[in-house]
């Protein structure tokens, strides 16, 4: 079955370029010229991925992403005319999966989208036990839910995969490369520093739930699961 992609950009030339590149690969494309229309189309139809421009009038791509993440983990790839690090970090922290700067190569864009779709399709097989826990943290690998001390924690699919990877081997220090291989299914198009943004996001969500010790940084190496105890 052909993948369905929603392309959101206020520039008609960009929309045409992206549509042509994706349709050549057999994908089905929906087009939205602004954020409000993007949300209408997203609510009406099922999409496998959203290509989302950041710099749009009225409702920018970051706000569209925030609205989508309230109800869905559908992968989102941001497009932006700006190459500022803060934009990339913010886009990833609010739930984006990747970030491409304009001007871009249509072939690279297609490759990045295919990589995201592959890792979504080839997500790591969960362990035999569907419930994993440490301290006050518990995750259900079948339902893709997480909670701390009874408080539900809303995680994106990628955040959940990273946390599950760490929880599967408490005490083990994972390099960024190992986390990429396990949680991202070997997606070579994702920079290893992207992991830092997702770890920051997991920590913020867990802190809000009452846990400030979910992931420890081992400087010069990577990350390991923390004590997962209540904040003091």
Quick structural overview:
By secondary structure, the chain is an alpha/beta fold.
Main structural class: alpha/beta
Termini, distance in Å? 51 Å
What quaternary form is this?
Answer: single chain
Number of helices: 8
Helix proportion:
25-40%
Order of helix and strand elements from N to C terminus: EHEHEHEHEHEEEEHEHHEE
> Unreliable segments (pLDDT under 50, ≥5 consecutive)?
125-129
Profile the largest sheet: 5 strands, parallel
Beta-strand content bin: 15-25%
DSSP strand count: 12
Describe the model.
With 232 residues, this protein is an alpha/beta fold. Helix content is 39%, strand content 21%. It has 8 helices and 12 strands. The protein has helices at 12-23, 35-44, 61-69, 85-93, 106-121, 157-168, 176-183, 194-208, and strands spanning 4-8, 28-32, 49-53, 76-80, 98-101, 131-134, 137-140, 145-148, 151-153, 174-175, 215-218, 222-225. The strands form 3 sheets. Strands 2-1-3-4-5 form a 5-stranded parallel sheet, sandwiched between helices. Strands 6-7-8-9 form a 4-stranded antiparallel sheet, with helices on one face. Helix 4 (85-93) links the parallel strand 4 and strand 5 (98-101). Helix 2 (35-44) packs parallel to helix 3 (61-69), helix 4 crosses helix 8 and helix 6 packs across helix 8 (194-208). The radius of gyration is 18 Å and the shape is elongated.
């Amino acid at each position: 079955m052909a993948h369905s992609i929603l392309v959101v950009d206020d520039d008609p030339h960009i929309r045409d370029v992206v549509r042509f590149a994706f349709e050549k690969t057999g994908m089905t494309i929906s087009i939205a010229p602004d954020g409000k229309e993007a949300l209408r189309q997203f609510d009406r139809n099922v999409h496998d991925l959203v290509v989302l421009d950041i710099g749009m009038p009225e409702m920018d791509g970051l706000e569209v992403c925030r609205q989508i993440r309230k109800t869905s983990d559908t992968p989102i790839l941001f497009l932006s005319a700006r190459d500022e690090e803060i934009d990339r970090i913010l886009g990833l922290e609010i739930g984006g999966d990747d970030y491409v700067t304009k001007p871009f190569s249509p072939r690279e864009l297609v490759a990045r989208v295919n990589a995201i779709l592959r890792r979504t399709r080839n997500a790591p097989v969960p362990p035999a036990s569907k419930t994993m826990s440490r301290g006050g943290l518990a995750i259900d690998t079948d339902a893709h839910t997480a909670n701390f001390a009874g408080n539900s924690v809303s995680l994106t699919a990628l955040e959940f995969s990273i946390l599950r990877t760490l929880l599967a081997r408490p005490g083990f220090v994972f390099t960024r490369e190992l986390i990429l291989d396990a949680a991202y299914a070997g997606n070579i198009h994702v920079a290893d520093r992207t992991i830092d943004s997702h770890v920051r996001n997991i920590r913020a969500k867990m802190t809000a739930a009452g846990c400030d010790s979910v992931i420890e940084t081992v400087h010069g190496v990577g990350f390991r699961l923390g004590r997962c105890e209540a904040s003091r």
